[in-house]
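Instructor's aside before we start: the two examples that follow are unrelated to each other. I chose them only because their records fit on one page, so don't look for a connection. First example below.
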Amino acid sequence: MDLVFSDIHADIHALDTIFGIASSLEFTKKYGTFSRIINLGDVLERGTHPKEVLSRLKSVETNYPLFSVMGNHDEAFLYNRLVGGSSIESIDEHAKLNSEDISFFKENGDGTFGNQEFIDKKNGLVCVHGGPLDPEKIKPKTIQNEEAWLYQRSWQRLTEEDFEFFTYSGYHYKASSAFDEAKKHVKDHIILCGHQHKEEIIMQDSHIHSIYPTLKSVKEKISGHILESKEIEISSSNNYLIRLGIGGPEGHYVKDSEVPHFAIVQYDPKRVILFTVYT
């Protein structure tokens, strides 16, 4: 079983809450024990505990396989690019990070950090922060360097329109494009992403449609928290795009309107369960 989260945003309380729930006896008896962790990016910025979050992830990495992709806020911090939304307190705390702290982000041979995607062909997973599209195929040839960054997988976002377009919040893609790209890597697949802080589930069968509104919501008390869950039974004949909600709401600009989210992927039978944590 996989434990999956996205957009922790330097929120150590939320991260520890997710780990605590998913490791609790009540949770594991009902849902199973996770054997690896998938981090869909944006562990930095907005929140005020980046050092603690990076330390916790490095500690967890010694006990579990941890697969991470880069988020746009992770890249913004590491490459000294400006992305709004962080408070003065958050900026000050991030300024205290040293090279040992940021060693969590593995440096590549070309000077970049981390991975833009994690593809697990055996289990049919395509994991990205924002979207799976190849940026070289969607960005104009004449684009400038700073704008080119906004076409990366870390910045892509599922469009709410019937067409694709570019803004300074990234490249807005259609679910059909995401499925077409993922099929190049995995025939029957689940695309897991975050970035937009809001849950969504798109299924591709004979056509492409959102199934999120049709899912039954179940509330239960586990490990001292009220959990709301939504379960998706995975059919091997369909493809799915599953977007997780925000993992760490500490620094979110809409105060008190967000709570932690995470997911698990089970394999026998195959299903994805989305969780919202109410404390």
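Example two begins here.
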Amino acid sequence: MPLASFAISCRQHLRLSRYVVSPLLLFALLGACSQIPLNSNTSTSRSTTTAPSASQNTGNKTTSTSSAAVRDPLLDGLLLRQERIYRIAAPLIIKNAVLCRTQARPLLGFTAKNQYSYPPELTAAARQSLGLDERLQVMQILDGSGAMRAGLKRGDILQTIQDLTIPTGPQAEPETARMLSPILKNLSELNITVIRQNQPITVNVPLTLACAFAIDVGNTQLVNAYADGRRILLTRGLLDWLSTDEDVAIIIAREIAHNVLQHAKQLQQMATLSMVIDNLLLFKPDQIAANSSNGIKITPEKMDQEADRLALFMLARAGYDIANFTHVMQKLAQTPNASQALTYPTLHPWTEGRQSVIQATIKEIRQKQSAKKALVP
């Protein structure tokens, strides 16, 4: 069975980014390593998300006094973007497991982090603002997942999984992956003990079949998105340019489609794209590398047409409005510096051929919906 990536400590991202486990993505559906500073142009969306404060650390001992005194704008910006992406991606990856083919996996559907899950510059803020320490703590729960149905809560501190004690400290995430890998092959649910309100609570968490791609936010204002076959990265610039969740969902769906269709592999640029993603996940990326083409190839029109078609079906299955698809593609073609070497419009040129495929696919989907037929390409 193909391997699936496990979330790693951001501090160790470059060294550990290729550590993998089988058979499921455990905690980080969206990588724990999106190291994105707050920007004055933070975009709004149809659903408002607020950065969590210490008093929101559900069920555990926290300090609710004057959270403003310990807020950190860099960490708040990071959390806002992570939570937005997590919220938008949830229906796309759960509702489209059948379309993700061999890249669908069972997963728990929550992120777990400790104070070391953030870059060194934010460790103190994570400790003060979020109440994180050496232990892994539940941070985000995927809507519709087994973790949500089981009653897992934000702020729960992981104690054991299948009676195995969860590691703590700087290497807690990769060590947990290593520990759990041998026992997960034939399970449909996991027995998890957490600490909530200083008391141990045991829950049985059913695994959730979903598209097994980590989705991150990249630290650059360039408007772009990348898919290396196993990961997806949307840049901060792209999130700022696309103001609504519906618009962002379209891009996430397209990048999922590129991965499912193995376009990076066909173009022989999986390693190149992986290096670009690794760089943009850093708190301070190499800006020279970030602003260069890095040898990334322009996506052939046929591949973009294939991704457009599959993405439209994924969006419809996830309950997103597909009518706005063409408008978003046109809006991206009008981004500042659209002719720059490493931007979305240059790597995914907008053509009449793509527009024709999109219109035909939307018509096909509408017909299937009216006839109550399965939404499968």
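Confidence is low (pLDDT under 50) at residues 1-59, 61-69.
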